[in-house]
Amino acid sequence: MGTVVGTGALLLVLSACGGAQNADTGAGGGPTLPTATSSSEAPPGVAPGEVPPDGKPVTKLDANGLASDYPRTVWTQGDGKTVGVVAQEAGCGKASASVLEQNTSTVKIELLETLPLTKEMCTMDIRFPR
Asked: Are 55 and 98 a contacting pair, CB within 8 Å?
């Protein structure tokens, strides 16, 4: 459990990523996509903040809700229905992402950093989890 701080709302405005959409549709009218998390480590051979070799960079991005120094690395993978994003966390904070809205032309993702409820000693390193 932790408190949510630094609610950096990353509103990704993505163009439709080609291909036919599934018949299953979520509340936003687009396909229902699972939300997955991965480790803070970049895959082997991929530096933090870089798009993976099998990824396609997203070029239409609305990141107005982010601080100017926050990462803006976003990509799609596979058939274009999987979206990857780089977040930022530090110290005892833990970054997470959730899909707020999706349809055939837009995906809105919120990035959060959660801190422990109790004060504890933490390193002040900055990490960029995917």
From this structure: no
Across the strands, what pairs with 114?
4, 94
Give the pair of three-digit tokens for residue 96: 């997470």
Residues, the chain: 130
* Residue with the two structure tokens 């979520």: 26
d(CA 83, CA 67): 21
* Pairwise pLDDT comparison (108 vs 31), residue with the higher score: 108
b/e sequence 8-31, b meaning 16+ C-beta within 10 Å: bebbbebeebeeeeeeeeeebebb
Q: Is the pLDDT of residue 116 over 60?
A: yes
Tell whether the model's pLDDT for residue 76 goes beyond 80. yes
Place of tokens 């959730």: 98
Joined together, the tokens standing for residue 41 give 């480590």
